[in-house]
Amino acid sequence: MSEKAKLTIGDQSWEFDTFVGSEGEKAIDTRKLRSTTGYIAYDDGYGNTGSCKSEISFIDGEKGILRHRGYPVEQLAEKAGFLETAYLIIYGELPTRAQATKFRRLVHDNTEIHVGIESHFDGFPPNSHPMAILAALINSLGCYYPELATNNRQQDLENFDTAAPFLISKVRTLAAMAYRTEMGMPFVYPDPNLLYSQNFLHMMFSTPYQKYEASETITRALDLFLLLHADHEQNCSTSTVRMVASGGANLFASVSAGVSALWGPLHGGANTAVIKMLQAIHKDGDDGTRFIEAAKRKEARLMGFGHRVYKSFDPRAKILGEVCVKVLDELKQEDPLLDIARRLEQAALEDSYFIERNLYPNVDFYSGILLKAIGIPVDMFTVMFAIGRMPGWIANWREIANVKDGRIHRPRQIYTGPGPRDFIPFDER
Ligand code: SDX
């Protein structure tokens, strides 16, 4: 029998059911709070509100745990690839060899883009941000492949097994095309003999006279970067995907909204902000000490630090920090920004200001240094995050689409505006 939550206001009391998730998280079922008490719960930023039940990922912020369908991210990082992890996140189980081969084939066979989409790139002004292009063109996929974006939930679910690998493949091609447009370079068509990350780097960096061939270390580092971004519970962009999906919108439209949400500097835009922060510190001839003091005076924000959920460490940041060193060693690159990052991390981990506020490096702190080492330009960093997060967005769309008689998400509010008043004609204002 579940514990009851008792709410007493004045001389009235009510009881509400509670329930416990599979990893021990406890919740009060407030679905009937307003109809029972006349009150709503107020939770600006939803820090204390569960918007859904989900079986996809689990984070224990106090212990720095992240699991996808029960598998620790550290094990997946060590033993799996991005597409294998994507399959797990979407379908709930690690793929058999046959399932993995079929999924990879579907991703592989959908790399090309409808030629009609190529002309859209010409419509964007030069230096358009690739995240704006990506959000727009992901939604446009529904115009070119309408059978995969009907907004008829049953049909969209029936076509899901086609649409999911299709989108994981296409986002990579659209991202590379956005970069080529920004650089004023011709598109490079995918090479059917290359694996996922290799093909992306080929489409980004090959030229008509020289094919780009990524080393094994670079390919593995990029694949690991994408894997570590694959899903992360109800973060801002994933919750946006669910919000849009709850209205019955198709996968492409829902994910396009997720791309827009990810772009914000407090969310997926942070990896770009981290590099700009490190470059500014380096340019100032600061070893990070002055910047840390400025952050403590709230005159600056240590981008790549802090997290709404992780209050001990972000396991992804630990892994990415190690990969950075490997890649830089292999490339025999000395990056002063890595030294500054290490010093900032060390200083913050010893400083009571950061310790009291549970501020540790998050996934974005080392991401930018790794992407920079691979040769990805700064304004493509958040695009790389979007490519990585695609499986999580797709899995969350499917999870909400499968909810029988699912309800549209429609939060309440507490109105604090002016009371009722009559219209005032112009000459009396
Ligand atoms: C991602 O949700 C996810 O799962 C996101 C993500 C994913 O995989 O999807 O993990 C990806 O978005 C990672 C976060 C990337 N963003 C950044 O690195 C931007 C810098 N960090 C912050 O702005 C901040 O830490 C947030 C947005 C990440 C979390 O903000 P919260 O939980 O709303 O915390 P807060 O703003 O209420 O801060 C609490 C205190 C405040 O100080 P006090 O008012 O208590 O004195 O901590 C301070 C803040 O000023 N603080 C920071 C800080 N982050 C919080 N001080 C300096 N530097 C920082 N980065």
Question: Helix and strand layout, with pairings?
Answer:
Elements: E1 4-9, E2 12-20, E3 26-28, H1 33-37, E4 57-60, E5 65-68, E6 71-72, H2 73-79, H3 82-91, H4 97-109, H5 115-123, H6 130-144, H7 153-158, H8 160-182, H9 196-205, H10 216-228, H11 236-246, H12 251-262, H13 270-283, H14 289-296, H15 315-330, H16 336-350, H17 352-356, H18 363-374, H19 381-401
Antiparallel strand pairs: 1-2, 2-3, 4-5, 5-6
Helix pairs in contact: 3-10, 3-19, 4-8, 5-6, 6-8, 6-12, 8-9, 8-19, 9-10, 10-15, 10-18, 10-19, 11-12, 11-19, 12-19, 13-16, 13-18, 15-18
The structure holds s-citryldethia Coenzyme A.
Notes on the structure:
The protein folds into three domains: 4-50, Rubrerythrin, domain 2; 70-247 and 379-401, Orthogonal Bundle (Citrate Synthase, domain 1); 270-374, Cytochrome P450-Terp, domain 2 (Cytochrome p450-Terp, domain 2, Orthogonal Bundle). The strands form two sheets. A three-stranded antiparallel beta sheet has the order 1-2-3. Strands 4-5-6 form a three-stranded antiparallel beta sheet. Helix 3 runs parallel beside helix 19 (381-401). It contains 19 helices and six strands. It is mainly alpha-helical and 429 residues long. The site of s-citryldethia Coenzyme A (SDX) has 20 residues, from helix 18.
